[in-house]
């Protein structure tokens, strides 16, 4: 009896202490983020895995970057920054025999048009050439046919290497990457270009630029819904219906005269400041379901309204997106105003508290130099969660699973 | 065949700077050698392209609208564009109002409800805002802003006790309505003490009742004199009267002086919430000459606390009447510059507990209200034994939070009725 009373007292004291700690809390009040993988945003990957970085000739990385420096600023820049991060990270090992994961630094998304959009036509050949190099110079590729290798493919449809969805689906994931782990921005359930075990990452958004546009937090949020961007892509889809599966056009047609919706195609210089004065920020799909708007909304504390059916959001196992954002089906877009106004205010305040959590914002960014809890670390955490490797990925010597000559004929030309 | 391709090429090249246009050309060229139906479609496509070139716009939408538009159901959709590329392996989805059609596509697409291809643009029958939803949205915004204020501006908001001396005259409605609107916008609880010279009147009562805030309307029997000096003295007495009311009723909050012709910024009310006992803010003085002479370009004088380098109160910026010597108004309806006093009451705020009887933790440097003699009060600083204990507000006086203005009409004018 005595001991039980003591234990009860101890438990009560502990509970009181914890609730005090939460109550006194940080300024402003935030909430802890728990995803399906648990409270893993703040995990430290150092010591949990080892990554070996292949030394590829500079024609695969440095020379490409030298040809066009714009690759460092566009939304596909994650592949370059990932390489730089891994080169100086404590998880890097110079001894491939003890490595758990192997990284191939090839910048496939750096062949830009004058407008700044990447052309994916040479990317399959570049990737193929890189893989041929690593499989002939090191034994580790052939050991597993790439199952313990990971690649960063941030392009529109990931490793399908095409910007048009129909073409991308036709191509499918590049044959040689079918066993590797892909780190990509594209994520859509039941889609050819998202394979099982991929790690979805946010697109690159420049952290310094966003930091420099912060406004005082006491500025009242007076805009209800905010969006800036195209509704019709007149150049490529003049009649509408292809672009964004008609969802963006539906937003425009239904809400263009609604004073609660601050939506337009302008490019204001106060874009970041405006997002900080808005309660909801629309993040509809475009040609691909993902968009840097999600990152911007999270950083600026604006609740993201995601209009993209079956989308897989970044780090979906670590971040409970259902609790943070609002998901609207594309078919429900005409009722967007009803949906948003019928959310109880308490839920909205809770979402804002979750967004205010600094570890949430940090997880969406690729800062230079890397900081604890940022997107680089989340990727490593994701890779660490996939360890230890299953024994079945190791192939017998000489055994081949992948068909190296599959795919369009154009891909087989050397790069 | 070649000619058609060339035509298509030239058509596609008309699109400004988009390289994505290259792709459809690719696929259509592939499909040309499939079947007579494909050839027929291709020829039709080419013909329509020619017609469009001649006309100058794509007429396909019009054609299909006229031929295929169906009756409008609850879910009106814009219908599909014409020419499906037969070579694409996924068919364009016909988004009809009832049946979601399942695409005949790749095996890889089975099990997904998301379809590649052209979709309809869903527009509801009445795509305009619904007033009830707009109200709900505003309530949401107000709740969010309240939460923001609680977190970032002030943790425990205190009631604002506004003291306004007034009297019936031509511009009273004009000035007092300004104060009414300012107080209506204040996001905290407000108690408004209106002291009227010449006794309580219905006109004043009518104006202040529109404010929607709790008001205490007191009358002082003395009529307002028609000189500025007399007016300043009487207003000081009226304000003290109001402070006595605060003391009697033990009103709790922050006392600020909202003169009826002053202009208050909303940030003032946020800033005074941080007063501990006695605070001072900077006032901008809008002393104008009434148009009697040409204005010289001068910096606007500011009255308020002055701080030294370590952000501590070091002195006061007061109004210097020297440039206006001999030119200032004496009577209330003079057309000359109206000058403020050295330190205006409006620039001071105090914790109402300073005025209460029998409060334990009242600071020792404040005088009891009962011991104050009416006649020599020029500014609330006389309520303090030690004026150096005043807290400078508004980033140490650098922010001007309210504007002092005195505008009065000629004695014989009347405010327009209605």
- Contiguous uncertain segments of 5+ residues of chain B: 1-32, 70-110
Q: What amount of the residues of chain B lies in strands? A: 5-15%
Largest interface, chains and sizes: A-B, 63 and 55 residues
Please describe the biggest sheet of chain B, giving its number of strands, its sense, and whether it closes into a barrel.
Answer: 7 strands, mixed
Low-confidence stretches of chain A: 13-26
Ends apart, CA distance between termini of chain A: 78 Å
Strand order of the largest sheet of chain B: 3-2-1-4-10-6-11
What helical percentage do the residues of chain B reach?
A: 25-40%
Measured between the Cα atoms of the first and last residue of chain B, the distance is: 81 Å
Structural class by SSE content of chain B: alpha/beta
What is the quaternary state of this protein? heterodimer
Give the total of beta strands of chain A. Answer: 10
Q: Tell me the helix content of chain A.
A: 25-40%
- Topology pattern of chain B, helix = H, strand = E: HHHHHEHEHEHEEHEEEEEEHE
Shape of chain B: elongated
Biggest sheet details of chain A: 5 strands, parallel
Mean pLDDT of chain B: 76
| Helix and strand sequence of chain A | HEHHEHHEHEEHEHEHEHEHEHHHH
Protein name (chain B): Glycosyltransferases
Family (chain B): Belongs to the glycosyltransferase 43 family.
Organism (chain B): Linum tenue
Function (chain B): Involved in the synthesis of glucuronoxylan hemicellulose in secondary cell walls.
What's the gist of this structure?
The complex is a heterodimer of chains A (about 425) and B (about 425). Chain A is an alpha/beta fold and about 425 residues long.
